[in-house]
């Protein structure tokens, strides 16, 4: 039996283009990340009813990190993850997450998680957790001159004004996403060697659960990262086949996912039908709180390759 996604008690809200948003939609995402425990080290997750033809990569990564974190003492926090997308996920059936307790050391804990559907692995993740420790500190500063998020239109306002919302047009929005520049799916965007910059935050209030904030950021990190590959070329991502192949994240400092974070994404290389993308998350006060890296499939339409 498929476990139900937790229903929100909040009143539904709607964006300027009529798409559901706000606390109720965010609560549904939190419910999606609240996995059912089947047995020791064994969990089950589901996909939302509005899923596209395959499971969103950020969803399976976030759920797998929940499965890993559920087996780790609360005093240890995740500092890195490395994952591979092995097969497309089927949103019509649950995903079973099998967690392996690789090592429990004095300072570090290592977990491996396998996402399984139809008896086959669709996703694998390794995650490392650490006891809080003191050490050297430095970070790359936040880029200057980025507009304040409140001065930018949200996605619903952008679409209502005649803009293109891409694949996010009609699905409920648990995140408030505000693009500094034209999105990569927009026909009005020109090729640029500058990074993609987008502000995002959970569109509501999250519980004070550090693991949940990290898992939600993992979910969000897959939204715009691979698009930075296409951004360096004079074409819309709407005409390119893209899929995540692997994904890595490093968490540097504490943060809240329901506060504004600037996500800067840049692609240093593309070849062989693949593209490499890097990303950095900054708080509004300029702290670098997480870094990402992803390689993805980036295929041109036949006749354009």
The dominant shape is globular
CATH superfamily: Acyl-CoA thioesterase, double hotdog domain
Number of helices: 5
**Strand count:** 14
CATH topology: Porin
Sketch the major β-sheet: 12 strands, antiparallel
Structural class: alpha+beta
How far the N terminus sits from the C terminus, by CA atoms, comes to 45 Å
Which bin fits the share of residues in helices? 10-25%
CATH architecture: Beta Barrel
What's the domain count?
Answer: 1
Question: Unreliable runs, pLDDT <50, ≥5 residues?
Answer: 1-7
Mean pLDDT: 92
Physical arrangement of strands within the biggest beta sheet? 3-4-6-7-8-5-11-14-13-12-10-9
How many whole angstroms does the radius of gyration measure? 19 Å
Order of helices and strands: EEHEEHEEEEHEEHHEEEE
Output the CATH class name: Mainly Beta
Q: Tell me the strand percentage band.
A: 35-45%
Question: Any overview of this molecule?
Answer:
It is a single chain. By secondary structure, the chain is of the alpha+beta class. It has one domain: Beta Barrel (Porin), CATH 2.40.160. 15% of the residues lie in helices and 35% in strands. The strands form 2 sheets. A 12-stranded antiparallel sheet has the order 3-4-6-7-8-5-11-14-13-12-10-9. Helix 2 (57-69) runs antiparallel to helix 4. It is globular and about 50 Å long. Residues 1-7 have low confidence and may be disordered.
